Amino acid sequence: MEVEIVESSDISVRFMLRDVDVAFANALRRIMISEVPIMAINEVVILNNTSPIYDEVLAHRLSLIPLKTDLDRFNLPEKCSCGGVGCPKCQVTFVLDVKAENTSKTVYSGDLSSSDPYVTPISDRFPIAKLASGQAILLEAYARLGRGRDGAKWQPVSACAYKYLPVLTVNSEACAHCGECVEACPRGAIALDDDSSLPYLKDIVKCNLCKACVEACELGALGLQADERSFIFYVESTGSLPAYRIVEKAAEILAEKCDGLIEELRGVLK
Amino acid sequence: MMVPIRCFTCGAPIGDKYEEFLKRVRKGEDPGKVLDDLGIKRYCCRRMFLSHVELIDDVIKLSELYGGRKVKEG
């Protein structure tokens, strides 16, 4: 197995995974989507809401705001020593206390005050509700760790996908260096080499294996195949965790699952 | 009624960028270019901005007229 980072930022990471099976790549993808835990608001106690936004809509909007998550400091409620009742190790409390005095006012995610200085909305600019003058909202919200399989608000990734690595083969004797394949590529992934003027894959990320280049070559000098043991992953975080951390955590969870299986098997076979 | 917090399809957070989008488009900028600027790449997220109608401001006017929902002061 070999990993190569193509591009990386806090919010997204694109990497190449070589010499693995489709099943492994897909297991990693599915764990990133549904098993890597993040924080999200999942309980709201509304004490006062005179805004035109209904209580349940308000709660739903709150739950969808991505919260910065520190996985090392928090437990899943079901695995916490408090038994899921709610303690500082598994729960963060938010308070929203806003009132529009003389003019209408937009309530932003920045108005939420958190009991934990690290666990805060990723942006202060999410509009939660709008108040006419005289209206008010007072509520308490509880954020807990959860997994994507239990609800989209706990899904740490927005886009999370992979594709096969494209491999372009050129028959250098048949190629007329005409550049038809370069013209035909709808995504501009192919270019002619400066020295040999043979076509090559300039951008493996852009190529989606449509084979327009192969069809455009009247001489049949081109071939485009998928390397079915190499994958280009694209993982985009919602902002709760850095993108690389999601991949890392997904791999840890996969390893944990395998360890669990080995232990079970040993128990059964004894 | 209000701009959604996230894209309906992919779940990317978009709500925090809507106000800037609206402000710049009203100034006469090309919506497509503003979206590029804001880093909204996929068409699922882009349609969230282009097709959204912010109705809340009209509802607020009604609220002002009728004095809001009657809820006991707590």
Describe it:
The complex is a heterodimer of chains A (270) and B (74). Helix content of chain A is 22%, strand content 34%. With 270 residues, chain A is of the alpha+beta class. Chain A has two domains: 2-34 and 158-235, RNA polymerase, RBP11-like subunit (Gyrase A, domain 2, 2-Layer Sandwich), CATH 3.30.1360; 39-148, RNA Polymerase Alpha Subunit, Chain A, domain 2 (Beta Complex). In chain A, helix 1 (22-34) crosses helix 5. Chain B contains four helices and no strands. The relative contact order of chain B is 0.18. Chain B has a single domain, classed as Homeodomain-like (Arc Repressor Mutant, subunit A). Chain B has helices spanning 18-26, 31-38, 43-50, 56-66. The interface between A and B is medium-sized, with 36 and 31 residues.
Summary, kept brief:
The complex is a heterodimer of chains A (270) and B (74). Chain A folds into 2 domains: 2-34 and 158-235, Gyrase A, domain 2; 39-148, DNA-directed RNA polymerase, insert domain (RNA Polymerase Alpha Subunit, Chain A, domain 2).
In angstroms, what is the radius of gyration of chain A? 25 Å
- Average residue-wise pLDDT of chain B: 90
Mean pLDDT of chain A: 95
Estimate nothing, just give the exact number of structural domains of chain B: 1
Report on the biggest sheet of chain B.
Answer: none
Give the overall form of chain A.
flat
User: Which spans of chain B have pLDDT < 50 for at least 5 consecutive residues?
Assistant: none
Oligomer designation: heterodimer
Indicate the proportion of strand residues of chain A: 25-35%
CATH architecture of chain B: Orthogonal Bundle
- Based on secondary structure, the structural category of chain A is alpha+beta
| Domain module tally of chain A | 2
- Give the count of helical stretches of chain B: 4
Q: Could you estimate the helical fraction of the residues of chain B in percent?
A: 40-55%
Major sheet description of chain A: 4 strands, antiparallel
Overall SS class of chain B? mainly alpha
- Largest interface, C-beta closer than 8 angstroms, per-chain residues: A-B, 36 and 31 residues
> Would you give the CATH topology of chain B?
Arc Repressor Mutant, subunit A
β-strand amount of chain B: under 5%
Write down the secondary-structure element order of chain A: EEHEHEEEEEEHEEHEH
State the end-to-end distance of chain B: 27 Å
